[in-house]
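Q: Is it fine to ask for two folds in a single conversation?
A: Yes, each is treated on its own. Send the first.
Q: Here.
A: Result:
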Amino acid sequence: MLNRITVVALAALSLTACTKDEGEETAAPCGVEISNTAPAAGNSNFYYRGDIRVTLTDADDTAEISIDGVTGTSTRADDNKSLSFTPDAPLDPSTGYTFNVDYCGGNPTIDFTTSSLGTAIADPASLSGAVFALDLQADDVEIVIPAGVGSVLESYLEIALLLEVESADASTLSMFGALGQDADGEKQEFCDPTLPFPEADFTGAPYFQLGPQTTTISAAGYDVEIRDLFISGTFASDGSYWGGGVLQGSVDTRPLVPLLEDCDSDGSTTETDDDCEEGAICELVEGFGVACEDCGDGSEFCLEIKAIGLGGDSVDTDLEEVEMADCHEQCAEVSDECVQD
């Protein structure tokens, strides 16, 4: 189903792509140092489903990560400078752990503690009717794919999103999303249709997954298709917030070209009036070593995105499902062509 709403997927392009948890630089006889880690030493709020990540100052094709008492997979990026460790199973909430970095400079250990996220909800049905904000500016939010590009595009879009739990029980979860008004992210924007998600498996409560699904959204007035949109996260045991969110999907960049600094709203450059090329955004990210991919129609203008660390608080708002754009009675400018059943 194609839906048209400004949602978090485009906002993911606007997020800062740098690692937020920095560890102390560690000198090494081989000339390689640890420049930062996630979590940092002493972190007491690590997400129980998160990956351990380490960045080195130079390549080391022997480097690996492990967690004491935890099985998992250690992976090096192609540059042999970025490392990650994915546990085979989620860590326990509110629990202390130690991870090790085995590299040419030694084998330092880093202690951290997981947050309370992951603690069971006594009654999953208590979430029914709850509305949650999506805080895109939180310190923990990071875009990890494509690396290094979020900071370049962050000024183009500012998105407020609300998510409502329609129903929940021990096995299934039903949610939909709505755009928040620019002036107040806790109030619904009625001019854009809401975004329904397929009913999700909730047997892993308080953890949830929405999608993947292909949808069309509206960003700054431009319709954009997102393929395989997927959102996941974990509700707090008392239902007061959610966190650990992951968003990923493939965004068609062509409709967003007018948002570039050198292009005006009709798709031409402000100085020459020449048409902006449809691959302008792909050319921009190519300078960061990022390649666009096939959009499914043979054209390589789609950008794979993945953002982590999303979340938001429960808000005192009731959402309404909106099927058509510019048709709701509370929309500021109802379209003359709007026809509702």
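Q: Second one now.
A: Result:
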Amino acid sequence: MMSNIRILTYTFGIITLFFIYSSFFTVDQTKQAIVLQFGEPKRVVNKPGLNFKVPFIQDVTYFEKRVLSLVSSDSEEVILSDQKRLEVDTYSRFKIIDPLLFYQTVRNETGARQRLESIIDSSVRRVLGKLELVSILSDARQNIVDDIGTEVNQIVKRLGMQIIDVRIRRADYPEATSQNIFNRMRSEREQEAKEFRAQGAEEAQKIRSDAEKQKTILIAEAKRKAEAIRGNGDGEAIKIYADAFGKDAKFFKFYRSMLAYEKTFVDKDTTMILSPESEFFDFFSDKKGN
């Protein structure tokens, strides 16, 4: 009997502890909570600490107090007012400021991100659709993202959220447009290269022609000077020969004959047919050298 009472006491104690444990919940300083009863919100808890709820009847849903980020999953193609197309990626930061309204409209963060991404994409299309490409690439870009943030904030406040910041991460031409621009730029650069090569070839031809002209002039001038020097040398040689011949005609004649003999008989295979009485052999027949 005592054993059964003890078991019942332990069982009741465990149930009581579990009941007490299920009656309390804590809210972290980075969280905010809504107490639900059968799916219906009963109260919002914004302050951190220990709180009470009815066990097994009420449950708690937690939401972030901190700033959350959202990166667009896909690039959006936007048509600008000048009919140019851009692919735009956005980045935004948001915060849950009204947990009850947030729960009633989007339920959770997944639903919030889907709604928020759709709202931001629509706002980007509306704002950028009024602008030209030159405006987006100018210093006015900050004003543009501020306008997008203001427009989005007015909408998401009805969802219990607040937009902290919206940024355009990337704004590029679509792939087909980029390829067309690349092909056009390449064609323009190739045309410029052809023009530069043609100009270079023309300039090179001018330089070569001028060099050939200078070469011809220099060679002609050098030949002229060489002929003048050679002429002066020949004249000087003739004068020296003439002076020497005038001083000793017989010796000069003898010297010239010896030079002629030396040049003539240097080759053993040389054959000459001359008369013995020829003047060439005067110094062979006259032993006195007369």
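Q: Anything structural to flag on that second result?
A: Two points. The mean pLDDT is 82. Strands lie at 24-27, 31-37, 40-45, 49-52, 58-64, 68-71, 76-79, 85-96, 161-172.
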